[in-house]
């Protein structure tokens, strides 16, 4: 009886509260847990798959995420590092639970890459004015609004806003749609590296990285609190059962914020295409802070990816490096490694130090020299996003050679980010 009580107390607080109210799904789970204990069966601890080199604190954080009856698999990619509750770069699978803290505060954060019909030679002499135009038209920074609210069909989907209990947030969300935010969020211009093509003839690509902005942060904060969780690094994950009222509402909120993030990145891409005077010829678009219902070891599970990119066989993903490094378009490769990684790959190069340490260690002149040597023009940005604070992307990708392959290599020549005056509270 004591053992059963201990098992129940290991459940998320929201589940315990629902059980006390007589929730049928959790009552059935209680009976199944009791039967398991009577039969003497205890599930073995889940051993995570680790790719690359990681510090002990990051690996401990991942093991804590897997220390739950419902956890079935976990992995961390080579760009991984310590995050809020779940490591950035980690994927964790639960049979019937979804992790609010695992998805994180920036629900639906992701990358969009757009190939244009414009050759690099047509823009190389006007990079500065183009970046100034992007910076003037698109809002960068925490709490920033668009000059005029963006109309979008998403705001007409009243059922989705009601299911997420998010109607009070619609007005602010409309004003922020298509704003980029701060931190490591950006709009970049790239030229594709093609071995048999002169650089001036290579196509220009647009790269965009941001998420669901204030809408996602407010929804995550709300459901973290309702789920009895806490904000922090060394905290247990906040898990909600998929069939509980709270779990269903959170899933609806996550899906709404994901749609919002996609719509915002689409809008920004359209603005940059207009500024360039170019047309789109291809695109790659993906989330990396989200939970998907997928098959794991033969049964459905929620795969919670925090800062890692879905990479099923043939699936394309856009992965940026730091502001001074090449980015790539990847394709997933079917292999035993890919399956062990829950069909996940990197979402970037990965930090090697925290923001505060980067601010202490580097000077703006060092950062600017790094960028000048690589022909990169910068608008905004600060030392916490210095390229020196990140791993090198090629070294990270070497660890994933058996599960993803590079299709396109993109070299940055223009970067626009929020400026040094912005403090970013959006955690992920």
UniProtKB/TrEMBL annotation:
Coiled coil: none annotated. Its EC number is 6.5.1.8. It catalyses: a 3'-end 3'-phospho-ribonucleotide-RNA + a 5'-end dephospho-ribonucleoside-RNA + GTP = a ribonucleotidyl-ribonucleotide-RNA + GMP + diphosphate. Gene3D superfamilies: tRNA-splicing ligase RtcB. Mn(2+) 2 binds at residues 209, 288. InterPro entries: RtcB, RtcB-like, RtcB-like_sf. Binds 2 manganese ions per subunit. GMP binds at residues 288-289, 320-323, 347-350. One of its GO terms (biological process) is DNA repair. The active site is at residue 347. Its cofactor is Mn(2+). GO terms for molecular function: DNA ligase activity; GTP binding; manganese ion binding; RNA ligase (GTP) activity. Mn(2+) 1 binds at residues 106, 185. Keywords: GTP-binding, Ligase, Manganese, Metal-binding, Nucleotide-binding, RNA repair. It is an enzyme of class 6 (ligase). SUPFAM superfamilies: Hypothetical protein PH1602. This is 3'-phosphate/5'-hydroxy nucleic acid ligase. It comes from Rhodovarius crocodyli.
